[in-house]
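Listing 4. Sequential folding, example run.
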Amino acid sequence: MLKVNEIFKSIQGESTYAGLPCTFVRLAGCNLRCTYCDTNYAYYHGEELSDEEIISKIEEYGARLIEFTGGEPLLQEETPALITRLLDRGYRVLIETNGSICIGCLDKRLTIIMDYKTPGSGMSGRMNEKNFQFLKETDQIKFVLMNRDDYEWAKALIIKNDLIEKFGDNILLSPAYGELSPRDLVTWILRDNLQVRVQLQIHKYIWAPDEREGI
């Protein structure tokens, strides 16, 4: 059984899969409290569902791309086993995890999107830098930035860990919606010739920022 906050179909608003139809399984519970969190409704509230009930809902929606998100989906010990079941059924599965919990045990067919927290989030001290060694070339690292200090911090971390050499275009820098101007972020990246991917949360330009997205 998993405590599920919601299951819905939308488009991928972030990552290199942005724009594709996707079924999201949002699990309840989170071990962090980021300053810019836009899903705090998932901290506590959810319904206990069996793997079969979750899979039935996923099949009903019909999308072949699935994302587990939260909250923090790896807080629940049953999450990896359900992901493996879906991979065995031929689904393409993503997980967005916050970088504080070890990812070494996850199925290697899974695409990990590690949302590595910057100082502006208030949670950078909770990150597990050892997680970088468990990431595959096909995985992605996301930094949500609040300001110039966050950008400089992320840039230093990227250089220190040779992340561009290891992950290429799969390093994502995202301006926190309503906090950092996308134009400012792009300007800094271009001036520094930093070989990373800028991403915007396109779902927030389709639906209102405080509106539940998708169907």
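-- end of first protein; second protein begins --
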Amino acid sequence: MKFYKLIIFVFLLLSCQNNKSSNKQKNKESIQHQVIKVKTAIARKNTFNKQIQANGIVKAAQKTDLHFKNTGYLEKIAVKNGQYVKKGKFIAQLENELLHNNLKKAEIELAKARQKYEELLLSYNLNDSNVKPEVRQKLFVQSGLAEAENHLQEARIQYRNSILTAPFSGIVANVTTDTGKLVTPADTIATLINPHTYQVVFKLMENEIGFIKKGLKVQTKSISGNLPAQTAVINDINPMVDAGGTVTIKARLLNNNQTLVEGMHTYVTVNIPVSEMILIPKKALVVRNDKDVAFTLHKGNTAKWHYVEVFGENTTHYAISQGLKEGDTLIISNNMNLAHDSSVETEKE
């Protein structure tokens, strides 16, 4: 009796499993035959702007800290932070009354020595136009004119070193306002920046350098986001990979409107044109089993599954290196719900 009950139990168990398998198959077939409405686009070949993102810093190619060459007490500052000055503009001055007096004294000594030199010429019945070079040199030393000229030159240098002027036109920054303070040649009085030489300095990974070349345009925008983007041109590529595996790039700003300033942090976008790439809208790509997949429309009503390799991307498109061909009809909506050979119906975008 127990044996018959066991046989009946096994029979019922197998029947249930068969029913479950049958239901799963029916559900699968139902899904495959369910018509899903989709939108489409055409895969086309075109030039692809490969985008590389980086962080950069604005730096002036022409920038210098201004120092006095002499030690002395700071007497006057003639500029303010943010002020634009032209080349040769007076910046600051040390107390230099003594140096000024030394300069005047040297000028007087030179005049006396020149008068003595002329007296010596007369005593030899000579004039300065026809005197022989060796005689002139002898009289220069004898009259003290050579020494007086040397003293005057030294006095002029000392006096000139007590005055700071702009070595080039630019914007003044980091101005020291402590007049009366003793300063040395090691102290920075101000920093001068030429805004017409602004450039963006950024780093790229070594595996990205193959796409970079001088003359390539980049877009840069302040991290704050409230300033307009600007265009720069790559003008320097350091031929060395640093310890972090990056290469330093410099790009000169074009027509800087003074919204970007020295030391500002920016986002940098490098657009690299790559010709003859298959471009697809970003909506056409889905991920299945950690792989990139695109669905195409086959015979007007069937979805076909394709593994693809992505070469790069920008804000709107992917560039595909393998898996699709030009002219393929891409499914760009409801593709998350599709399987291979799903039935679809197209609708207008």
